[in-house]
Amino acid sequence: MDNGLTCPQCSSEHVYQDGSLWVCPECAHEWNPEAAAGGSTAAVSQGVRDANGNPLNDGDSVTVIKDLKVKGASLVVKGGTKVKNIRLVDGVDGHDISCKIDGIGAMNLKSEFVKKA
Question: Which residue in 36, 40, 22, 46 sits closest to 96, CA to CA?
Answer without folding.
Answer: 46
